[in-house]
């Protein structure tokens, strides 16, 4: 079986790494891939960028690719699945209509309300004055969101009315490009965030292990939002009782409502939850793809061959599959980022020490790297250093020991990944 993965981040490296563990996988291609994917045995990078649908389609047909797996949200929102379907190519990832669940926060909020999915109270605005007036009437803290795709950075948690109003102005003035045509203003929820990714074939939906991301750049969850600075799985706060509620109150309702709208959703449906101190949950957002860096801690624990699950989704036979099998233990990943991220940062910094990190048993997923004569940085989030152990203490210890081996100029990482774990072990 030959698979083509669209994307160039740590998530795509993790997917390629996992697929290549199966004897059923002959070769994996990555478009465009990164310095990590090109180094995997039986994996080849392509020159095609993620939105070059024609080039990707031509290669898939010429090479008789059995399955295309789309990693990032942007090509999904732009309709890559629809385009490839029209060319007779099999794709794991929702159509443009399904990808609206991430591409438009306003659309997703309306779907949640229609489906009766627990979510934060919100209002949508196209006018700056009306939005600022609403903020003033609601008070702070409050959450301001750019409606469209903003690489995980279009959410501002404002502690004051003034900060919220400034965020409204910045979004409407184009800080997040076309993502700022609409502004969604939500009530502020307290608690812990948990990511629950689920596999869907349009009818049946099955959750993967819950994971907990660390969105803020600073230790103690301070500073600006990022694409994610580290994660661990399985998140203990998502108890079996809570996961059963998420299945019925979130995933089953979402899929039924999507079907009622004529949307045949096949791929990953990712629910970002806020769990209150009392143990109740609400959905903060939906995403239409594998989470990053959650994928980098979920896939190392997966026992069931990944390609079997993906094919079951694409062929709408997920209900026939046995329960998803998992390894015991825990996984944790630490993101090594470029200095200045999530703001302005420099590229092309030489990376050393990865072999030493691997020798400790860690897995190093490349996110923003490029391999020429040397391995160099090529993005804001550069590496995901993942440890796996019998418990969180072992997983975190392995990850952080491996991080200490790696160096590049300006390298920054949070030293408190997993700080919310009340009981280590």
Automatic annotation (TrEMBL):
Xref: NCBIfam families: purD (TIGR00877)
Record-level GO BP terms: 'de novo' IMP biosynthetic process; purine nucleobase biosynthetic process
Entries under InterPro entries matching the protein: ATP-grasp (IPR011761), ATP_grasp_subdomain_1 (IPR013815), PreATP-grasp_dom_sf (IPR016185), PRibGlycinamid_synth_ATP-grasp (IPR020561), PRibGlycinamide_synth (IPR000115), PRibGlycinamide_synth_C-dom (IPR020560), PRibGlycinamide_synth_C_sf (IPR037123), PRibGlycinamide_synth_CS (IPR020559)
Domain ATP-grasp: 109-315
Catalytic reaction equation(s): 5-phospho-beta-D-ribosylamine + glycine + ATP = N(1)-(5-phospho-beta-D-ribosyl)glycinamide + ADP + phosphate + H(+)
Name of the molecule in the record: Phosphoribosylamine--glycine ligase
Highest taxon, organism lineage: Bacteria
Annotated EC: 6.3.4.13
EC class of the enzyme, as a word: ligase
Species for this entry: Iningainema tapete BLCC-T55
Keyword annotations of the record: ATP-binding, Ligase, Manganese, Metal-binding, Nucleotide-binding, Purine biosynthesis
Family named by the database record: Belongs to the GARS family.
Annotated HAMAP family: GARS (MF_00138)
Pathway the protein takes part in: Purine metabolism; IMP biosynthesis via de novo pathway; N(1)-(5-phospho-D-ribosyl)glycinamide from 5-phospho-alpha-D-ribose 1-diphosphate: step 2/2
Cofactor names: Mg(2+); Mn(2+)
Keyword check for ATP-binding: yes
GO molecular function, one term: ATP binding
